[in-house]
User: What shape does this take?
Amino acid sequence: MRILVDIGHPGHVHLFKHFIWEMEKKGHHILITARNKEITQDLLTKYGIPFTPLGEQKRGKVKLIMEWVNRDVKMLQIARQFRPDFLIGVGNPSIAHVARVLGATSVVFTDTEHAKFANRLTFPFADVICTPSCFLSDIGPKQIRFDGYHELAYLHPDRFTPNPRVLSEVGLSPEDPFIIMRFVSWQASHDIGQHGIQNKVQMVKALKSYGRVIITSEEQLPPELEPYRFSISPEKLHDMLYYATLYVGEGATTASECAILGTHAIYINTLNAGTLNEQEERYHLISNFSRRTCTDETVMEEAKKLLENQNLRADGRKKREAMLKEKCDVTSFMVWLIENYSPHFFEMGEDKRFQCSFLSPESGQ
Assistant: This one.
């Protein structure tokens, strides 16, 4: 098969990297297109994944629409030459539009309910929309729910083994307490009117009494916080998250990554997601402040409560094990879906979770 995978965000590199490698091993022809957003193209280069550049990130709603129009045009040109059977991406209008024009099949993954503007431009044209089983919205007959999270495509134990040597690069050991903070840029269309941490400097000062504070940020930091900025290669962040005592931040993906790794996370953002709800309510690994009074004071109360638990890391590992028993390896699901795809999937009734049963513990596979 011929498969075009479009990468629009650094997180999408992680989401699809194992799928790309698995499908190439199986002899399928893969073409990667990549938007120049933050470190997206740098990550692809570090992982040795060849790609075709596809546009620059634009800020602001009007400029973003123009970017999407240009991406549609460029992707159509590229896809006409490549002749894909499938186009795959995350919440991506361009792959849905181009696949419709070329008569190919578009498979859209999404776990972001609040990306309403992008979803309205994508869902009507997509052939398949894959969401976690806990996704809050019912999209309709095109939706296939899988029992997992996007982050399990690359952080499932079959895909990821933490490397403690990464800690030595920043002067830490696995026993040292440290807190990772993440600040987002607030430039996405769905970020308008939302907020996270109000006084970053004050919160860092409060947290550092519990251990070293390490910051990863999409935006420029105040001068007094620059010494806290994460200083090693970005592909090593997941090793750091595994060994962290606590995550406190505005990024939903990083919060979910922490939960999957067994690290407790405090998510400080007014935007919610079904993934975060489930990881809070069912597995008790996330403190989700999109559903609580979200002030710096309430966040610090929660952080202190967690950090004063001497068994916090051990408790997190036990909760992680309970989660993994109920969730599938999402990369294996992706491979299975594409290799076995048929429009007849949509004749299986209202609940499209059947496709994940082959990965469940009860299946014995």
